[in-house]
Amino acid sequence: MRANSEIGKQLQVFVRENNVDQALRILKKKMQREGIFREMKRRKAYEKPSERKTREKAEAIRRARKAARKQAQRDGLLPAPKRREETRGGMAGRGRPPRFDPAAARAKPPAA
């Protein structure tokens, strides 16, 4: 079990130039990477031992498939994953697409 081996492990974030917002973003990112949010969600309610075994087995299968896929990509058996195109600000592929505005669509002349 990973959680038991990491008891007492501390995440440390430095606040530079009183920029607490940036430090909070960094802390959240570190917590996400460590799986703390997933662990909190999982511990919110009791998990029966049978459910735990089922979940752990599914996680192991998922990890094995991912490792096999990565190995196949390295061996050239599968194509490499498509890279996202960078746009202004480096925010390509993040968040929702812009909302459809019917008024703006009517204002533009149709492309011929």
DSSP strand tally = 0
The share of residues in helices is 40-55%
The secondary structure category is mainly alpha
Count up the helices: 5
Extract low-pLDDT stretches: none
Describe the model.
With 112 residues, the protein is mostly helical. 54% of the residues lie in helices and 0% in strands. The protein contains 5 helices and no strands. It has helices spanning 2-5, 20-34, 36-43, 49-75, 102-107. The N and C termini lie far apart (62 Å). The model has no long low-confidence stretch (mean pLDDT 82).
Lay out the secondary structure.
Layout lengths: L1 H4 L14 H15 L1 H8 L5 H27 L26 H6 L5
Q: Can you give me a brief rundown of this structure?
A:
Helix content is 54%, strand content 0%.
Name a few traits of the molecule.
112 residues; mainly alpha
